[in-house]
Amino acid sequence: QVQLVESGGGLVQAGGSLRLSCAASGRTFSSVRMGWFRQAPGKEREFVATITWSGANTYYSDSVKGRFTISGDNAQNMVYLQMNSLKPEDTAVYYCAAARRYSDYANWAKYDYWGQGTQVTVSS
Known about the structure:
mainly beta; globular; single chain; 7-stranded mixed beta sheet
């Protein structure tokens, strides 16, 4: 099992920045990829970004590319999501997730472990 705990959410004005953190514990060696997803009220869970634990590969959704940056600290079992130039449409609960396989990184169903989520609210 892998346990994930997110932190860093909050309320910010449009154009501002937030940095989300995800602390992984347990059998972290069993996961190969970490991802961030988000879910707004009444909407489906949406892929945001992903990184392999090696740090060699990162991918972003088109909606956040150029504004968000995912990074990881393998030694500390931490994953971060730096969010800049935030927009009201970025408002959602943000989830950290871990996958045991490399396949289909944008599909939330391919991730095996999830955190409890952290709320991000961007005011206009």
